[in-house]
Design goal:
- By secondary structure, the chain is α/β, with parallel strands linked by helices.
- 32% of the residues lie in helices and 22% in strands.
- The strands form four sheets. Strands 1, 2, 3, 4, 5, 17, 18 and 19 form an eight-stranded mixed β-sheet that branches. The chain has a seven-stranded parallel β-sheet with strand order 8-9-10-11-12-15-16. A two-stranded parallel sheet has the order 6-7.
- Helix 7 links the parallel strand 11 (245-250) and strand 12.
- The two termini are 29 Å apart.
- The model is unreliable at 1-21 (pLDDT under 50).
- It binds zinc ion (ZN).
- Pfam families: Amidohydro_1.
- This is Imidazolonepropionase.
- It is found in: Cytoplasm.
- It catalyses: 4-imidazolone-5-propanoate + H2O = N-formimidoyl-L-glutamate.
Length: 422
């Protein structure tokens, strides 16, 4: 995918591959019943191959083809006729926090509405936590994700909301992922409640300066009760000026300006997209970008849907069908956070997307892999073709269909991350 002219430093095949102990030599994954490559062909975006094998060398996919033609390798894994997929790319997660909000969830399930106000509860706990506590939480959730097949994750700040705690949140996040996102504009913290202009000035000034060295992206919660279009535009423009790519939390709780602001700024992704007008969808569909995928292009701005949030706030789900039929590129992500979506499970999100958002299983699996990669403007993950990172899942099932067909069942038999069994 070309990223020329768009912010968000691109990651390309072979970039940032750290030498990992145990990856020397080649590994053949053989006897694959159904291999999802995402190389795509007209009518088959998943690029499914049957009776396939895949060769891993130096942490990358070196060869894909028929089991009959498989080359020799130093080691061999027999997939036993199971399905093999690219590792999930979870492009939206808030993992740097302390405490939990189980009581708030229980109150919501007893009938109280979700307003986003509980974020401030987590801010208090996060500021009071030690670096070690925060690092342990990120590590625990990252490990939980890996066990469920997620090999790439984006991690946001947004529970520090002062200069020191936003910077340390991103510094810790950067220990776990390349895709770190500065979300100083999550909500206006209590101490700035009566002077939001001053808070926006702080986010654009000293907070951005302290956060930017650890961040690839900048994000704003553009919503009633959080940041309006003018504040969001100002913050995102400051981030772009120092080289950060743009993402937006948009149109979650009601219709609003977030989606069209994201398109205007060339955002890589607008996330949530629960309440969209026809004009929002037209704006998303109107700007396209060349890519390496089968379709040959994506929309510049991906619509990232987060059904865990609707599940956990008992809210109406976004309509993925409307976006897909308009030609908008769709990603699925967990939104993993302690308030509105405390799930780390991409298989759960796939099942919700199929059952509740009118996606086919194939569309949901594509959105959870290649779609997430598009939302992060990455071409090295989300597919299993030569040159891609050897991030893959061997399912305990013969087909990707089982991810939605058997909801809640632990179907991830084995995960390879950078070619290393985990
Ligand atoms: Zn979020």
């Amino acid at each position: 995918m070309s990223t020329g002219g768009f912010p968000g430093r691109p990651v390309r095949p072979g970039d940032r591959l750290r030498p990992v102990p145990g990856t020397s030599g080649s590994l053949l994954v053989d006897n694959i019943g159904e291999l999802v490559t995402n190389e795509g062909r007209p009518g088959d975006p998943l690029g499914i191959r049957r009776g396939a094998a895949l060769l891993v060398e130096d942490g990358q996919v070196a060869w894909v083809g028929s089991s009959r033609d498989a080359p020799a390798a130093d080691r061999r894994t027999d997939a036993g006729g199971a399905a093999v997929l690219p590792g999930f790319v979870d492009s939206h997660a808030h993992l740097v926090f302390a405490g939990d909000r189980a009581a708030e969830f229980a109150a919501r399930m007893a009938g109280e509405p979700y307003t986003g106000g509980g974020i401030r509860t987590t801010v208090g706990a996060t500021r009071a936590a030690s670096d070690g506590d925060l690092r342990a939480t990120v590590g625990r959730l990252r490990a939980e994700m890996l066990r469920q097949g997620t090999t790439t994750v984006e991690i946001k700040s947004g529970y520090g909301l002062n200069v020191a705690d936003e910077a340390r949140s991103l510094r810790i996040a950067a220990e776990f992922t390349e895709d770190t996102t500065f979300l100083g504009a999550h909500v206006v913290p209590a101490e700035y409640a009566d002077r939001p202009d001053d808070y926006v000035g702080m986010v654009c000034g000293p907070m951005l300066a302290a956060a930017a060295p650890y961040a690839r992206w900048i994000d704003v919660f553009c919503e009633r009760g959080a940041f309006d279009a003018d504040h969001a535009r100002a913050i995102l423009a400051c981030g772009q000026a120092v080289g950060l790519g743009v993402r937006v939390h948009a149109n979650q709780l009601g219709p609003g300006p977030g989606v069209q602001l994201g398109v205007e700024l060339g955002a890589a992704s607008v996330d949530h997209c629960t309440h969209l007008t026809d004009a929002d969808i037209d704006a998303l569909a109107s700007r396209r970008i060349d890519c390496m995928c089968a379709e040959g292009e994506h929309t510049v701005t991906v619509a990232t849907l987060l059904p865990g949030a609707e599940f956990s706030t008992r809210s109406p789900y976004p309509d993925a069908r409307r976006l897909l039929d308009a030609g908008v590129t769709v990603a699925l992500a967990t939104d993993c956070n302690p308030g509105s979506s405390y799930t780390s499970s991409m298989p759960f999100c796939i099942a919700l997307a199929v059952r509740e958002m009118r996606m086919t299983p194939a569309e949901a699996v594509w959105a959870a892999t290649a779609g997430g990669a598009a939302a992060l403007r990455r071409t090295d993950v989300g597919r299993l073709t030569p040159g891609a990172r050897a991030d893959l899942i061997i399912l305990d099932a013969p087909s990707h269909l089982h991810l939605a067909y058997r909801p809640g069942v632990p179907l991830i038999r084995q995960v390879l991350h950078n070619g290393v069994p985990r």
